[in-house]
Structure formats: C-alpha cells, structure tokens
Amino acid sequence: MRTQVGIVGAGPAGLLLSHLLHLRGIDSVVLESRSRRYVEQRVRAGVLEQGTVDVLDEAGVGERMRAEGLPHHGIELRYGGGGHRVPFERLVPGRAITVYGQQEVVKDLIARRLADGGTILFDVPDVALHSLEKDPYITFSGERLDCDVIAGCDGFHGVSRPSIPEGVLTVFQREYPFAWLGILAEVPPSAEELIYAHSDRGFALHSMRSPEISRFYLQVPPETSLDDWPDERIWAELRARLETVPGFTLAEGPIISRDVSAMRSFVAEPMRYGALYLAGDAAHIVPPTGAKGLNLAVADVRLLTAALAEFYATGSTALLDAYSGSCLKRVWRAQHFSWWMTTLLHTFDDDPYGRRLQLSHLDYVTSSEAAATTLAENYVGLPFDFGARP
Ligand code: FAD
Ligand code: DHB
After folding, report:
1. Using 50, 70 and 90 to split pLDDT, how confident is the model at 386?
2. Ligand nearest to the CA of 194
C-alpha cells in the first residue's frame, strides 16, 4: 500500500488532519488500533475554543456542532461561599466557547471521511514505524504502508513518539497529586454555564453535553478506583463541593458513564523527527482544567496541513521545517494556562501558605478586570497567529 501521508491514530488530531489534507487534494491513510465503536464512544473533552469551531466550520464538518453544540459566553468561578461570573461577552467581545462532546466531533469526522471515500483502518494491531530519516513506512498486522511523511497522532500512549531514537527529544513534565473522576448523568444541567468550584474538599466542575445530559468532574486521589465510588458517594461529594452558594441545588439523575483521568503536564520537543511529525497528545499533554488538549490538537493539524500543502504545491519545506517551533509557541501558552488553572482551583495537601495564595489569587481574578481578561482570553483561545514573529 502507498499513500502520501500515513496517519497513526483516529482521534481528533488524526481524523481532522486526514480531512483537511483531503480538502487540499492530499491523500492519506489513517491507522487506528481500537474499534470504530470504541473511538466514537470514548467520553473526553467538551469545550471547543472559538478557533476550533471556526476550523471545523470552514472545513465543512461543523453542521451538527452548529445545531447541537451549546455556545457559552461565560463561566463561573465558585469559592468561599460565592459565585463569580467571568463574562466573555464583555472581556473578550465576539469570542466564545462551544460545548460539544469530543466523541461527537470524532463521529462527524469519521462519517465525513468515509463519505468522501477516505481510508480509515480500525482494529489495526502492531503498528510500527520504520525508516523515519528517509523513505518512511509503517507496518501493521503483516501489511506495509509506504508514505512520504508520517503523522503521529496516536495520543500520549501511542507508538509514534517512542519510535524516535533516544536522545533526540527533550521532555518537560509535571505530575499532579490528584486525578479527575468524571461522570455523565441523564439530568438537565443545574446551571446554564460551566462552574469551576474550589473548596476545602477539593475541586469540582459542573459541565454539560446537552439540555438533557450533565457532565461532572471531581478531584480525587491519583490511585482512585471507581469501585470505591458508588453513585451515592459521587452525588454527595458533588453536592458538598457545588452546593456552596445560596439558592443552588444540584439536580441528580442516572449516571450513564464514569471514568478516572490522570493529571499531567508534558511536552516533548521538537515535534518532528525526520519524516515523522507529532501532533496533539502524542507530543504534549495538559491537565484538563483549562480545557485545552483537543483545541491544541486542532491547532497542530491546522499548521501541519498548511505545511504539507505548501510542500506538495511547491516542493518547499519551509513550513514543514517551521512546524515544531510554530506549534510550540501555542503549546507552551496552553501549558502555562492549564497549569495555572489547575494550581489555582485544586486542593493540595499540607500547604496552608499555598492555600492562602490561591484564595488571594481567586479574589484578584474575580475583582480585577485585567486579571479576569487574562483568564477569559486564554480560555476562549488565543488567535492562531499567537507568538508568530512578524
Ligand atoms: P487521542 O484522542 O488520544 O487519539 C489518539 C488515537 O490514537 C486514539 O484513538 C488511540 O486509540 C490511537 N492509538 C493509540 N495508540 C495507537 C497505536 N499504537 N496504533 C494505532 N492507533 C493508536 N481537551 C479540550 O480541548 N477541552 C476539554 O474540555 C477537555 N477535557 C478533557 C477532559 C478529560 C477528562 C480528558 C481525559 C481530556 C480532556 N481534554 C480536553 C483533552 C482531549 O481529550 C485530548 O487532548 C484529545 O483527545 C487529543 O486528541 P488526539 O487526537 O491528539 O489524541
Ligand atoms: C469539560 C472538560 C474540561 O476539562 C473543562 O475544563 C471543562 C469542561 C467537559 O468535559 O465538559
């Protein structure tokens, strides 16, 4: 088999890349180790930045997102017995976020690729990358795929990044002493907007997927087992962390999905080795508090598409050579924002000094227009040319 771009991973990064390349007349094959059903059901992100929405719209895959996604013009920070709205419409006029499940984006992209005659191979075992310096190829279950370049879009635990020889990558990382327990519940959201709640008991997040489905997260110890969290314990803890302002009652309903996610900050530089280009979680991870991971994946593949389009149209490798550096500008901004949101809102054991700093910073963000604007412009997403040199 031969293609122009061999793509490893059918997450948001790999699927969107394949579609954007197709729009530029560039051929690709996507190899995915899991089943179509599995990737379409995997519950993860929910917040799309303005720029992500624009990219999906412009690529002609935004129809259902426009119809079913929920545009939000603010979030609430809840702590110390009060709720404080961060109003995007005033602080970053014309910019908003859209709440639309990652698995819905994935479903839309798979449907579109298949309708356009694209090749996505699911349930593909034993993917291995070869000859990354020149004439690269991928092997899987006894087959061989030759390509001009390989896009490693296979997430944090994929094979692409570990295929790069030792000593090439520099890794920067930070672990956090907690995880997130996430649930989906069949109950209308208890508020119209997302609530990021900080309390002595730990962080909690009220989010949603639709007018009928709520999504919640709880800060929990890192080795948490779902077995220790029967429904009643989950609801009791959500109530304790969210029912902290007068007049707010948490609506409860059947829990239809639950998961535990580790919290990690991670960047591997550069995002390229020879003919292999890393994109999305394969190259960088942020803790989910800032809702940036999926959005960064979209920003990466947008740049990779432009670089490959220039290469195939003119033979120039200028944009391909600039790819890693350009992506990393945005990656590091999101790293900082996600680390900042995480340390601002979670509870750390045995750190009374840090606790006072958190409360002081929350008071600042909720009273200073300048500080609130910093949060708002990062949350809705900085422009795609952020950090670009003139
Ligand atoms: P993935 O989605 O991880 O896709 C990689 C794909 O590669 C997978 O389908 C995997 O099966 C496949 N793969 C792996 N190994 C192989 C192999 N060896 N061979 C072939 N295929 C392979 N981000 C946001 O922007 N907003 C949010 O609100 C948000 N909330 C989040 C909440 C939670 C609880 C979590 C866990 C994450 C959240 N994120 C959020 C992050 C977001 O989900 C990820 O950043 C995003 O999935 C990255 O997409 P990706 O395509 O790079 O990687
Ligand atoms: C969701 C996830 C996040 O990480 C976040 O910051 C906000 C919302 C969500 O899944 O809805």
Report:
1. confident
2. 2
